[in-house]
Amino acid sequence: KQRARQHMRSLYLDIIIIALVNTTKPMLALSYVSRSASPTAAFSSIRRSSSALAFTSSRVLNTLGHNPRVSHHRHCRYTTSSILQMSNNHHPLDGKNIVTIKECLKDDVLSNQDTIFVDGSWHLDTSRNGRQEYEAGPRIKGAKFFDVDDVSSKGDLNPKDLPHMMPTKELFAAAMDALQIQNNNHVIIYGTQGSSPQFTARTWYTFINMGHDANRVHLLEESLNEWVGAGGPIEKDSTKVSFLADDLNLEEGEFNYVAKDASNFVNMQDVLAVVNDIMAKTKEENAANVIDKTVIIDTRPAGRFNAEAPEPRQGVRGGHMPGAINIPFMDLLDSSSTSKTLKPKDELKQIFTKAGVDIENESTPKIIVSCGSGMLACLVAVALEECGRDPKGTFVYDGSWTEWGLDPDTPVVK
User: What is the pLDDT of residues 127-139, one digit of tens each?
Assistant: First the structure.
């Protein structure tokens, strides 16, 4: 019994330390954990809030009657000084979605122990492979690689064998542990030429909606080429990505990284309900009342949207969902920039307005974004948030047109 009590105290301590680093209400979290009989419930309470702040660790440790110098729980090692260091550190990129190379090259970013660069490169062009290019180099010094195709739901979890479907929280947590990424890290997502930011936005969106604090996930608007040109530190020697998802042990269920079930994604049944409602309301000439004014944005090129150009995947029909609004992803990018960065906020707002999309959450509480396979839809999600939309009202259709166009029973407009 004494050993069990010691183990429980250690577990509670780890929960509270997460609260110190990741919440804005440490006293509330402390109060809840102190009276809670369930560590799982305590975790749920703590994970509701998100930004870092300073808090006196000794008070927490003394409250539990625990040795104030160290936690002995076998999965964590925290000292009082390291807790205070984590909680007091203000990262210069805190709260920024899109960041520039100039910002990232500053000493207080590069030298910050919480900064981690993650290569999220992906290419529709099958002659290029983001994982292989990362392994061959060059890459940003110390960067990790996140493979959206590998860290994804497969097999029984993905019976249609759709590409890069969102992973389970267990798989994502195991991948973060393998990459040595912690919840308190500031993760800067970048990519190679032709991938950043249009495809790397998927990695950005994945991190945030699998539980990483949105204030600590940043999308580099330029590519690796510009990083090298600006004199950013790189590694040129070859390396290997540290794991394959199939080799990760998900059975034990104990991970250092705290992930959650994917949020702000919808499946085909969700979208079909909206489309059916659109068709019904259109017949009634009352389309303005479609399921609380849900809007569907399709970000594929106009030729594919109108079935005038072929789909890149075999067997996928051309056309679009009834009621969908076409905003081609290229319209959101600055064609004058080498890496096709997002256009300025005012121009983005004009594009959405011209297309008939009201980005205000009050008038359009739900926007569903679709693309070819769930990649470029995430770029639209970034653009909407940059324009001031609350991300809670934006959802990505994970299977997107690959799933919809392959199904012979889904309604299609050509």
Answer: 999 999 999 999 9
